[in-house]
Amino acid sequence: MMNDRPADRRKPLKHRVKIALRGTVANVSYYSGFSRMLARRSRQPRLTILAMHNVESPPSTDFLPPDMKTPAALFDRLVAILTKTFPTFTVDGGVRALRDGKLAGAAVAISLDDGYKDNLKAGLPILQKHGAKGTVYVEAGAVGERKLSWTHCYFWVLHHKGFEFFIEHYKTLSKDAAAIAQLEAEACAGGDLRYHLKRILKYKADINDRDATCEAVMRQAGGDPPAVAAQIYLSPDEVRELDRAGIEIGGHTISHPILARCADSDVEREIGDGRRRLESWLGHPITTFAYPWGRKWDYDDRAVGALAREGFVAGCSMDPGTNHPKSDTLQLRRYAVDSGVSIPDLVAEASGTFDFVRKYLKLPV
């Protein structure tokens, strides 16, 4: 999951102007052919890693929010355009090429987080159709133990019962008075309740109380967390099927926690044991990792150090941008993709168009 940030209900005018200018530059450069020309001619090594979740939205995943979905038709179009414009890599392959000086220009790597069934059923055929490579970051607990995370319980309840049901039952079942008070305050404030309530649960609520309470609320709403997990996540056999098809499998912890909120021992366990579970299924090393949630406030130096001790080749964040030869390979940037993605913006980012405009036209895009 992605795109979380500290609360900010109103974007300042300067930010809105920058977004509008960036959109204009992206559209003009894309439809004029400039971005694709720059991608072909540039010899500046750069690797843009796409980050997605679901490739389609069958009934079993209807409860997930739009920023976790990329419809199959859009994914097909996106992969078709990318493979005609850039060489594609797995994250491991792209990072090694970037590190070893073997990238002659712009390249992309396609990654999908968490390990959903549709990555195999819908995503793999599209990647194969276009000759593209990809990486799937697998949440080991959801796949191996059918453990549904608190966020999925939360989204499921909101989809089936609504905000009022969730808040009232959370108040009844939770022992975290401070979090309850903040949830009530956010509910009164209005705005994007799905986001703002989730932010409180994510950053403010007691972790153990939140996990247990969200699962209990889902059960009171008539949901079956293990059954839902079995419907939406890959099985170990399906992870092996992706691996045999040439898709890189990467680490994504056991339970998808905010590593910055974890105890030292839990950071090591989530990263190391999660990796070893995947390796036990596949029979070969796991070399890259994606930080759950992945923004700079969601993980810290302890997690980066754990990756280094485990010998990972790469660690992927959710901080936006493109990677260069001097980028920190254990804190790589990714470009978030969902149903609202702007293909011109993505191509402009990956090709280096925005860097060109900043350098030569001095525009703040």
How would you characterize this protein structure?
The protein has helices at residues 13-31, 34-41, 72-85, 91-99, 117-129, 140-145, 150-160, 163-173, 177-189, 193-203, 207-220, 225-232, 236-244, 264-282, 301-310, 343-351, 353-361; strands at 46-52, 88-89, 106-114, 135-138, 248-251, 288-290, 314-316, 335-336. It has 365 residues and is an alpha/beta fold. The chain has 2 domains: 13-146 and 233-361, Glycoside hydrolase/deacetylase (TIM Barrel, Alpha-Beta Barrel); 150-228. Strand 6 (288-290), helix 15 (301-310) and strand 7 (314-316) form a beta-alpha-beta unit. Helix 2 packs parallel to helix 16 (343-351), helix 3 (72-85) packs parallel to helix 5 (117-129) and helix 9 (177-189) runs antiparallel to helix 10. The protein is globular, with a radius of gyration of 20 Å. 46% of the residues are buried. Mean pLDDT is 95; it is low at 5-9.
Task: Identify the quaternary structure here.
Answer: single chain
Q: Helix/strand-derived class?
A: alpha/beta
Contiguous uncertain segments of 5+ residues: 5-9
Strand-residue fraction?
5-15%
Largest sheet: 6 strands, parallel
Topology as a string of helices (H) and strands (E): HHEHEHEHEHHHHHHHHEHEHEEHH
Rounded to the nearest angstrom, the radius of gyration is 20 Å
CATH architecture of the largest domain: Alpha-Beta Barrel
The residue fraction in helices comes out at: 40-55%
Q: Report the count of strand segments.
A: 8
Shape: globular
**What's the name of the CATH homologous superfamily of the largest domain?**
Glycoside hydrolase/deacetylase
CATH topology of the largest domain: the name is TIM Barrel
CATH class of the largest domain: Alpha Beta
How many separate domains?
2
Distance between the termini: 25 Å
The total of helices stands at: 17
